[in-house]
């Protein structure tokens, strides 16, 4: 049996630490990804990071031991958007 699709959304920029803002499996995961894409939010596919992050609940801050892994994803997003950290605070 195939494992159901999982998705998790993070918010960063206005918070000091990234937070989990959405999380789900199956149809809910599909809707999370669809909404992200609809709003121009980049979607990264990283099964190892997802398995770590899905241990957290919606509203939780990312713990320090996950900072490096999340920073890699965030730096990729900044690069894709042509932004630098802090640019989002001026928007």
Which key phrases capture this entry?
single chain, 91 residues, alpha+beta, name from scop, two-stranded antiparallel ribbon, 3 helices
Chain-wise SSE layout:
Layout: E1 6-11, E2 19-25, H1 26-38, H2 47-53, H3 67-81
Antiparallel strand pairs: 1-2
Structure description:
- This protein has one domain: 3-Layer(aba) Sandwich (name from scop), CATH 3.40.1690.10.
- The chain is built from three helices and two strands, in the order ββααα.
- The radius of gyration is 13 Å and the shape is globular.
- The protein has a two-stranded antiparallel sheet.
- Helix content is 38%, strand content 14%.
- It has helices at 26-38, 47-53, 67-81; strands at 6-11, 19-25.
- With 91 residues, it is of the alpha+beta class.
Radius of gyration: 13 Å
Q: Which CATH C-level class is it?
A: Alpha Beta
Task: Report the CATH architecture.
Answer: 3-Layer(aba) Sandwich
Order of helices and strands: EEHHH
Q: Low-confidence stretches at least 5 residues in length (pLDDT < 50)?
A: none
CATH superfamily: secretion proteins EscU
Task: Briefly say what this structure is.
The model has no long low-confidence stretch (mean pLDDT 86). This protein is an alpha+beta fold. It has one domain: secretion proteins EscU (name from scop, 3-Layer(aba) Sandwich), CATH 3.40.1690.
């Amino acid at each position: 049996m195939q494992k159901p699709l999982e998705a998790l959304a993070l918010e960063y920029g206005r918070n000091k630490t990234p937070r989990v803002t959405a999380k789900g499996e199956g149809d809910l995961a599909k809707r999370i990804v669809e909404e992200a894409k609809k709003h121009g939010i980049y979607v990264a596919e990283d099964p190892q990071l997802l398995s770590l992050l899905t241990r957290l609940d919606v509203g939780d801050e990312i713990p320090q031991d996950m900072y490096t892994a999340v920073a890699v994803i965030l730096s990729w997003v900044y690069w894709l958007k042509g932004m630098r950290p802090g640019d989002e605070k001026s928007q």
